Amino acid sequence: MDDAEFRSLHRQELVDDRINGASQLARRALDGLAEFSGSCSIEDPAELQEALLAFAEELQYARPNMAPIHNLVERWADRVAGLEPATTAELRHDGAAIAQELSDGSIHAVSRAACEAARLIGPGATIITHSLSSTVLEAFLTLAPAGVDAIITESRPGLEGRNQARHLDQAHIPVSFITDAQLGHFSRIADVALVGADTLLGDGALVNKAGSYLLALAARDCGIPFYVCCESFKQVPYGAASFELETLDPAELDAPRGRYITPCNVYFDITPARLIDAWIDETGARYAARADSDAT
Amino acid sequence: MDDAEFRSLHRQELVDDRINGASQLARRALDGLAEFSGSCSIEDPAELQEALLAFAEELQYARPNMAPIHNLVERWADRVAGLEPATTAELRHDGAAIAQELSDGSIHAVSRAACEAARLIGPGATIITHSLSSTVLEAFLTLAPAGVDAIITESRPGLEGRNQARHLDQAHIPVSFITDAQLGHFSRIADVALVGADTLLGDGALVNKAGSYLLALAARDCGIPFYVCCESFKQVPYGAASFELETLDPAELDAPRGRYITPCNVYFDITPARLIDAWIDETGARYAARADSDAT
């Protein structure tokens, strides 16, 4: 495989992936950068540095609604751009080492955020969630020994929820597996709604798999809290006004064909901050502003 | 086919049907009663009357969450029970005639309700709906010449929305076809949400395909009206407290298998009256109580 093939293949894998959440894909992107640092055929240090940064820029925008891909790859690119390597060997080593360091940091942050969520929720709860999130999965695993029940949506069209259900099953956690349309009915049974995030906007709004907004509405209507749990690398500074929701291949819907039928696959939706009761990251929980609270 | 086979087959067809809405299935039940009146092998008038009423009772509870099946079959049974036929020929004729009369009345009521909905909504609107409803379909067809756009969900697991989309496509009505999980995002684009009903409870709450409650929540949050449109035969006197939601075969979800995974297929959900802006039937529209209104 030549350099161009490697870059194109790795980027496409990120675009097509429906198995992994945003944090995992961000670490996949870092893995790709580490591997490319080692395998790229260029032998001049300055040219190699330029090729690495060009590849980073390609990966950064592979999944525009997944902030950690953008943020972690940008962090990597900033540090690699600041290197002044005398040899390609040195640059190859540093490129891989920085990727590893950022990846380890991400794993640690996810773990910490999951622990904070588990601490906030406590044992014996029935948690309803939507789609797939490695952070939410870790929160479930943390709570498993003390007892926890899960309500998991299938999450059409990518069916990421099937994966979430399999992981929980392996951990012996009882799972009620539902269609996305049953989110409302089952919110009446749950104690708490917990989701991960693809991106957290500057105004506290959540970008996550389409359907998360519906879960937040149902949770509010049923009087259960709606928590968002993710590493802080998922935050972006701008708000919903300057954010465009990613549309994926409409063929995923397997819609009936017709001249007047347009299948739509807006893969994410935006949950406004006013529907979120707490944001949980590796540093702890931040609660929504209430009459008796000073949080924002 | 003997009498028992006919009865069992017809009942099972009602149970398994995912193509037709509640009003259509109610008329199917009446068709079955008319056909059985003619074909049943019993030659004693009193025994025939008893067999017809027994069959009616079987059909009445074939789809417990679809009120018109119960209501129209009960109306038929009440009238057939009141007959005092001298001959089986007379009873056969009357049984079929009463079924036809009730069926015609249902078709007329659906049509009138659809016209009322079309009049209330007016031309040029983008209407978002969920699942399949013959009344909603007729409202779309009524609005088609003046212009109307549709947002249609696939409606997992039965995929009734695919049928709705095909019917609209045949009528040259532009359809945005979405997953159920996109109901929230697309409510922001729609002008009005319109659904049919499987049952209307005594307190004004709606029983309809699971996901209708989510659409009502999204419509309220997005500031668009949520209308329910159905013939008055869908009303029952009791409230949500004494209503049990129908659960269909969990295999329809095609869930991942696992010892700790329980697939759930609660096919309907309940939308409380407070989320409904107007109830439309063949007699017109009844609006939700507002500070400036005297409706209930």
Strand content of chain A: 5-15%
Low-confidence stretches of chain A: 291-296
For the terminal residues of chain A, how far apart are their CA atoms? 51 Å
- Which H/E pattern describes the elements of chain A? HHHHHEHEHEHEEEHEEEEE
How large is the count of helical segments of chain A?
A: 9
Q: Using DSSP, what is the number of strands of chain A? A: 11
Architecture overview:
Two copies of one chain form a homodimer. The first copy, chain A, has 296 residues and is an alpha/beta fold. Chain A is built from nine helices and eleven strands. Chain A has helices at residues 3-16, 22-39, 45-60, 67-81, 88-121, 134-143, 160-170, 183-187, 212-222, and strands at residues 126-129, 149-153, 175-178, 192-195, 199-200, 206-209, 226-229, 261-263, 268-271, 278-281, 284-287. The longest helix of chain A is centred in the middle third of the chain and has 34 residues, at 88-121. The interface between A and B is large, with 50 and 50 residues.
Write the layout of secondary structure elements.
2 copies of one chain form a homodimer.
Chain A: H1 3-16, H2 22-39, H3 45-60, H4 67-81, H5 88-121, E1 126-129, H6 134-143, E2 149-153, H7 160-170, E3 175-178, H8 183-187, E4 192-195, E5 199-200, E6 206-209, H9 212-222, E7 226-229, E8 261-263, E9 268-271, E10 278-281, E11 284-287
Describe the structure concisely for a colleague:
Chain A has 296 residues and is of the alpha/beta class. Chain A has helices at residues 3-16, 22-39, 45-60, 67-81, 88-121, 134-143, 160-170, 183-187, 212-222, and strands at residues 126-129, 149-153, 175-178, 192-195, 199-200, 206-209, 226-229, 261-263, 268-271, 278-281, 284-287.
